[in-house]
Every structure is written in C-alpha cells, then in structure tokens.
Amino acid sequence: MSENEDEITSPVPHNLQAERSVLAGMIYSREAIGEIAEVISSGDFYRPAHELIFNAITALDAAGEPADPITLAEALRASGELARAGGPGYVQELANEFATVSASVRHAEIVRAAARRRRLDRQLRGAMDLVRRGELGSDELSAAVRGMISDVIEPEEPQLEPGLKFRALADIAADVDSRPPRPWLFKPVIVSGDYGVMSAQDKAGKTWGILDAAVSCAAGLDWLGLFPAEDPGPALVFLGEGSDSKMLRRIRAVARSKGLAQEQADALPVIACFRAPQLGDAQHRHLILRAVEHYRPKLVVIDPLYLAAGGANGADLYAMGALLGSIQHIVQSVGASLLLSHHWNKTGEGNGHNRSSGVGPGAWGRFLISVAVLNSRTDSDTQESTVRLKWMFKGDEIPETETTLVRRVFAEDPEDLNSRMHYSVELVDDDSPEDDQTPAELVGLRPAAIRVLNVVRAASHPISVKGIGDRLAESKDGKGPLKARTIQDALRQLAERKLADDTTLPGTGSLWLATSPSEATHAP
Question: Region entry Disordered: which residue ranges (predicted)?
Fold first, then answer.
C-alpha cells in the first residue's frame, strides 16, 4: 500500500458511542438539551442520521414540545427525514440507552473534540495537496499547521467515563471521608439513597404502609410512628391501584394521625401519578427521569410491582435485575431512595422475607421489608378494621428488625365514601393476648362496645342511650358519633358480660350504670 493510499484510508476521527449517548440524554431530559446545545452544534456529528435527530430534538425543544421517542419520530416523519435518520426503530433504540445529564454533557465534549480533529484533518490534507503542487513552501506550511492546531485542538480531550473504574484504597478513603455524614431516610431501617422492596401478605395494607412513608418523608415525621425521617423532602408516588379521591382520603387520614390539619396535609410535597409505570418502556423511563429531575424527591414509591413489571418473569433473576436496575439508576441519579411495593407468593412456601414473589426483587433490593398479617377483625357496627401485623426489616447495612403493630382504620360514616377516614398505627407487645393489649375482661368486645363502656364508666350517675350518644358525639377522640341502634346493641353485649346494668325504674326509660368502679379504658 502506498503512502497516499494509507492517507486516504486512515480512519476519520469520530466516536459513535459518545454521539448516541448525547442523543439518548437529550431524549431523556429537557435539561440536557440546553446544556448540550451550548457545547456542540448539529455539524459536530459524524453520522448524518445523528445530525438530523439532533436538529429535530432542538427544534421540538424550541417549540416547547417534548422530545420523547414518539413525538421525535413524528417530527422526523413530518419533515420527511425519518428514513434518513434511521427510522422509528433507531429512535427507539437511542431512547432505550439510559444516560444521565452529566454523562451526556461530558460525552458532548467528546463529540466536539472529534469534530475539531476532523476539521484539522481536512485542513492538513488540503495543505499537503498545496505542497505537492508546489503552491506552498515548507516554512509557510509550518506556520499554517501551527495556526490550524491552535484554532482546533483543545488543551485536554475529555474521555468517555469507563464502564469499570479502578481506584486505590487510599483514594477511596480520601473521597469517602471528605463527604458529609450519610443520613438515614428512616432510621434505622432505610438508608437515604438506597433501594428495596416491601412485600406483604394479602390484606396487610401495603398501600397504607407506603402512604405513611410518603407523608412521613414529606413532613419530616416518624414513619409508622417508630422510624424518624432524618432526610425529609418531597415524595414521588406511583399508585397503580385506586383512584385519586380514594388516595387523597387515605393521605389525609394518615396526615391527621400525625397531628397535621387538612390544610397542612394538602400542602405536603407529595407528587402522585395514578398509574403504575411500565419499567420496560423507554418512554415511561424517560418521563420518570424528567419527573425526578424536576421534583428532586427524597423518596420514590412504585405500587404495585406486578403492574410496573409489565409481564416480566419475577423468577428470572437476570431479567428482573436488568428491569429494576434501570429504574434504580434513574432514581439514584438525584440521590433519592426507591421503594417498590410487592406481594407475597401464592404458594404458601417460605416465611417472612422468603415469601416475596419471585427471586428477582428480593435479590436486587438493598433493603427488604416483609409484612405479615397475624390476625384481623372488623366491627360489624362501625366497620372499623383492626389488623395486627408483623413488620420485618433486613438489609446489608441495617440491623434485622421485627416489630408488631396494630393498624386501625374506620370511616366516620361507612356508607358515605366522602366521609373522613381515620387511621392509626400502634406498637404492641408480641406476647400480648389482644391486638391492643386489652384487659382480659374486655377481650372480644366490639370497638363500639368499648367506646360505650368508657362513657358509662365515666358517668357519675346512670345514663340513657341518648346521653351516651350525646357524649360520644362531643368526644374529642375524632371517632364520631354512634347510631342509637349501635349503642343499644353495645349495651346488650356489656350486660351479657356483666360490665353494665340497666337500672330502669318504673316510669323511667333505660338508664345504664357500670357494674364496677373501674376507670374508663382507652377506646380503640
């Protein structure tokens, strides 16, 4: 091969990997579009298709339109350039390549450096042609080359961030020790910035648990009344099961249980999407990235995982790792924690954390939470549900923790879907005979009967059904009044237990009196 042939066939400077990363970042983030446009122009791309796609993205952004894969492909089609840009399949392929804003900007600098080397290469070839034709002397050539180099070459050429990094232990130690202390999101069960899974038995109330987490994070209050929020901030919640009215009702109930007024609850930095995102869909990941970059949450919750996984096989460790890894990197790019809500398997095999459905989520998570139902009951009169739960926590940086909680939920009017809901969660002794460590004489009593007994015991004289109802209506416990029929049924149950007597006298209505001077008990 001659020298001339070698010059002609030598590679032209370019980096297609960096070009793809730049376009992927622009598709993912509107923030990246502006930053990248300050670094490069369309003429800096080596592949013509990339130049067309870059122009289409910047045009969409200038018009205030999103540059998601579908909109971008339609814009290219409208301009008659979709085929030259590689077709919709290539646009989607670029969108599937995850790239953070910071990485895309760094890679834009690589694209710019390659473009400058190409310009220098063209100029040098032109100068050599002039020398061969005798139109340029050696001294003139040297001066021209120095000018070309000073105009084109940057002092340092940025490098692609490698997939594998190698650092000496001393460098790692210096880097880690220079950072601020690592905070807990909820001490001591979730480290800020970590990711994991909460799997629960059917009817354990996963949604109540994640809404409690979201409100606690947003308000800087204790999750479940136990775990302090030490790195509070906005919470981004994807709720695939339930309407906005249902979830707002629950969020207000959780906030009220933490001492927040409705106005305070409604002003919390909780951002909700009432649809489970498809984690395998590039456009959904793109929208999630935009959301986390805009709202900068401290906690991201996805409920439930089976809807978000979009039919992926939970037993396939490798496939689930790739699926969950994509959303993990998006959430961690803003320093947020990720909590996935999951369910127990239906086989009945395993216990605790081993009951999580599929091997993928459990193997992926940095922390695991399992929630088991120990027992539950619903009051037939008030429809108050009382569930005793075993919460179990484990992780690579947290102590294994188990705690037993009693969750109570009721609506002031069970027949009115707009009436206020009430929620409470309470730590109880594992060995307690009843959910709320109820005295033996009250075991098995309905919640309504205990409330009525409290009123009767607190009364200084025999009291009528109406009088009991009036006192319940005036109570500050937030549980609301009871119907006369419910009070009468409760009194009959108390009479059967010999906890209250009907002291009716001739010519009077029913008047009730406690059979012992016991102090009023705490009503659930």
Answer: 505-524
